[in-house]
């Protein structure tokens, strides 16, 4: 899709598509040996809700305001590695491809996510 047609959130398909992306993402994560232990004690309904809000805002939705905890505070003690962050991005890419999101918008999404590596990865 042409980037002139609105923000990534709009090009992606809005709330329903972002919700679908996050729901499918956490389904994959919970079956991924590299990632699932990071979420074993988490309230997954809350995690999905906050992640949807975060992604919507990150993707340019001006109506959504992420109100969750500071990202550094949330991730500091999880000991997330670069390898795990990369796997996170791999799952997002795969799901977005399955959802038939354009290559350009997938690249844009992954660039947005990459900008947050330094507040998520603390185990170098």
Automatic annotation (TrEMBL):
CDD domains per the UniProt record, alphabetical: TrHb1_N
- InterPro entries documented for this protein: GlbO/GLB3-like, Hemoglobin_trunc
Superkingdom: Eukaryota
Q: Which GO terms describe its molecular function?
A: metal ion binding; oxygen binding; oxygen carrier activity
Pfam families from the entry? Bac_globin
- Which of UniProt's keywords are assigned here? Heme, Iron, Metal-binding, Transport
Coiled coil regions, renumbered to chain: none
Q: Does the keyword Mitochondrion apply?
A: no
Does Metal-binding show up as a keyword for this record?
A: yes
User: What is this protein called in UniProt?
Assistant: Group 1 truncated hemoglobin
